[in-house]
Amino acid sequence: MPTHSGELRDLLYRDTIAALSSAPGKGAIAVVRLSGAETEKIVRKIFRPKDPEGDFENRKFRVGRFVGADGGAFDEGMAVMFFGPGSYTGENMAELYCHGGPGIVRALLVAASEAGARPAGPGEFTKRAFLAGKIDLLQCESVADLVSAETRRAAQAALSHLDSGLSKTLESIWEKIVEAGAHLEAAIDFPDEFEPGAGPAVQGKPMDEKELARRFMEVRDALEGLEKTYNSGRILREGARMAILGRSNAGKSTLLNRLLGEERAIMSPTPGTTRDTVEEVCDIGGIPVRLIDTAGIRETGDPVELEGTKRARRAAAGSDICLVVVDAAAGPEEVRWANAELGELDCLAIMVANKMDLPHAKAPGRSKFSGKAACVCPVSALTGEGIENLRETMASTLIGNEGDEFGGNQLFLARERHRDLVVRCKKAIERGAEGLNNTTSPELVAVDLNEAQRALSELLGRDYGQALLDKIFSTFCIGK
Fold this sequence. Notes:
Blueprint: H1 7-12, E1 17-20, E2 27-35, H2 39-46, E3 47-49, E4 62-67, E5 73-82, E6 93-100, H3 102-114, E7 118-119, H4 124-131, H5 137-148, H6 152-162, H7 165-189, H8 209-227, H9 230-238, E8 240-246, H10 252-260, E9 278-284, E10 287-293, H11 303-317, E11 321-327, H12 332-342, E12 348-354, E13 373-378, H13 387-399, H14 416-437, H15 442-460, H16 466-473
Parallel strand pairs: 1-7, 8-10, 8-11, 11-12, 12-13
Antiparallel strand pairs: 1-2, 2-6, 3-4, 4-5, 5-6, 9-10
Helix pairs in contact: 5-6, 7-8, 7-15, 8-14, 14-15
């Protein structure tokens, strides 16, 4: 991967940075990371090895004591050097392992600062790795996603991108676009006397219009396939919002507690107990889902309950999917109410027929509900009957039929930036294909190919500006 050059890289590489790379707060061990040309010099100033003989060896730990500017020791720990260009950032790096008391960490960071390091900015270690050509921009973003992953499945998904699976796929598409452009340019420049090897990266006879059209459609289909993964990828990365709606005393709070596995919401047979929304995140099939328990929806003159109903509907408006809870023992009136509520929703709903433990409970069929009802899940939130099936239904409704493969080796788009650039590339390819079909000037088709190529170059980080880097790395934690 090529090293990026320019004023930004020169500025960053002028100094050595330091930051806490482990979680803040009290702990058994803390890790302070340094990177830059003066790293080894700074480490020698603040670390006294028990064995003072010999130099630091690459990736070999040394035991010793950490000292301040006055030479006084304040902790015992370990230090390890990672010499560039084989380090994470491509330059000399060190990791210092100290005891995890906040006072010790502060003292170590102060010692590093007094020895010549400056505090690192958000994501600055990873930014240096990108500028050194160690990883591409997609992999940088996957580092942030890995750190913020709330479930194992989300972590697996981020790790698959860090392993460059998506990058390699996009790289392959980019190469096909470049190759098509090269053949098109060769056909323009050498229409009668084209020779094998002439023109940019072209071997053999230039592609004719039919071959180019097939190549355009092949690229378009690959891009469209990636585009379709965005909603599921976004939900896996960011989590989903799911409001629990229902009439008073339908068992919404009991259902929330059952899904969470703990008593988070107050349960009472008295209608109207829940007045405000209660939100908690839980793992649903590996997807981080923010469940929102809402106030019961019913006709009332109580201004507080009316406000609760308004908040319930606002929660529904911002949800990816809603759980609409009906009392399976209450009869057809529940179905009429549910259909009226479904008409107000802008998203799909899972109908939860609750209280199946009661003697006269009967779950309505899917045909009883409007088209926004994805399915009906009979449950007893009180006893736990049907809850596992409900959880599986929630997961499959959120991310489709990807099953266990999703988040493992399957490629997907997880960020709006990724989706927008893939769409931009696809539209440029579609314009080029239409131009070929309409016998548009080859020069104009080449313009569309160049636009497609630029979109993927920006996605991979080959074409970037400081504003883009600032936006991406501002979301990183300091020390990564």
